[in-house]
């Protein structure tokens, strides 16, 4: 079966789309800041036009479900739901942190990755992931397992958890958080990478095994992952 997937991501400052068609990948990446809503649909149209495809010729849509900014994740979720409903397509949600780990693997062959994206408010979107090669009837894929679950926390809390795990050795550090906060800059665990933000391109690699394992949802069941929503709720006066 020739799988055709379109991935999009607006969860961070980056805005990206990527297409898998006839076994080949194409992608468009921009740093859009506050213009995601203006850029993402034209980028989708452009990448489909380049391949002579219509939306209803896709097998599924893939999207970065977060973590990321409220606005960015919400934009990506809304656009994905609208496109999927209009073309009657299933949706494959992908973690933005896992996508960055996948980028580390594809670009640097790293299978041990620590992600830290600047979340503002002296916090980072943080996870520690280790890759496991899994063989199936559809081929060999890298599955990312959480050593430390994705979360939003202060740089100091991230460091404390890594130390508690006695983290050492050949880890690759990815994300904007390593340069944004002095605590992380001065205490790298392994090598700091030039990979700063997630890209839809690397979501495709994660979406392929998810498709074959039927790990997709209906458009109406798509749910974003903010991570910060519960923390913010608890900080409100009168909330526990």
From TrEMBL:
It comes from the Bacteria. It is found in: Cytoplasm. One of its GO terms (biological process) is tRNA threonylcarbamoyladenosine modification. InterPro entries: ATPase_NBD, Gcp-like_dom, T6A_TsaB. Its main location: cytoplasm. Keywords: Cytoplasm, tRNA processing. CDD domains: ASKHA_NBD_TsaB. Residues 30-184 form the Gcp-like domain. The keyword Cytoplasm applies. Gene3D superfamilies: 3.30.420.40. The keyword Flavoprotein does not apply. One of its GO terms (cellular component) is cytosol. Belongs to the KAE1 / TsaD family. TsaB subfamily. This is tRNA threonylcarbamoyladenosine biosynthesis protein TsaB. It comes from Mannheimia succiniciproducens (strain KCTC 0769BP / MBEL55E).
